[in-house]
Design goal:
With 183 residues, the protein is mainly beta. It is 9% helix and 35% strand. The longest helix has 16 residues, at 2-17.
Length: 183
């Protein structure tokens, strides 16, 4: 009986630790290094509890897991950074390699992701509302594709103004979003 109680107890602990999440998978198709970043800034307020940064050399890949219930998640590309992932020419942030400002200071094209309780989905988009296109970027998921290039970034592909809702897309929780630089 004691063994059964221990198994049930351990199973309960394990079940409470399992967290569903989605994956941001980065691919550098550029012929120069790119430093992808992920941060959190719900409603424009930085929250350093979520941050990611990594140097990707040409053809390099990296990924970051995010809890499905998170809101205000942003991803972006940084270029021309120093050896520590700081002082970037584009997409700069506070905090160096792992940004702590949620991308608020990046002033570049952002991928935006957030949980929507209605429909139990992740809404996502590209946005250039607060910045410019520093690097051609594409996000794909389950057949949905959003691409924004320096010379071609229509509003159905990326927000240019806060009300460009045709750029908004939804995907199931637990999805993988493939973010390609120099797409």
């Amino acid at each position: 009986m004691l063994n059964l109680l221990m198994i049930l107890g351990l199973t309960g602990i394990y079940m409470t630790m399992v967290v569903e999440g989605y994956t941001l998978h980065f691919k550098n198709n550029c012929n120069f290094p790119v430093w992808p970043a992920v941060g959190k800034a719900p409603n424009g307020h930085p929250d350093p509890s979520i941050s990611y940064g990594k140097k990707l050399n040409p053809t390099g890949e990296g990924h970051f897991e995010v809890n499905d219930r998170e809101i205000g998640i942003r991803s972006w590309a940084r270029t021309g950074c120093d050896a520590n992932g700081a002082n970037c020419a584009t997409g700069a942030c506070r905090g160096g390699l792992r940004c702590n400002d949620g991308g608020i200071t990046s002033r570049v094209l952002l991928g935006e992701y957030g949980y929507q309780s209605y429909g139990n989905v992740i809404s996502w988009d590209l946005s250039r509302v607060d910045g410019s296109v520093n690097i051609d970027t594409s996000i794909t998921n389950d057949g949905n594709v959003k691409t924004c290039r320096k010379n071609n970034c229509p509003t159905q592909q990326a927000f240019a103004q806060p009300n460009d809702f045709q750029a908004l897309t939804t995907s199931p929780v637990g999805s993988t979003f493939r973010i390609t630089f120099c797409a």
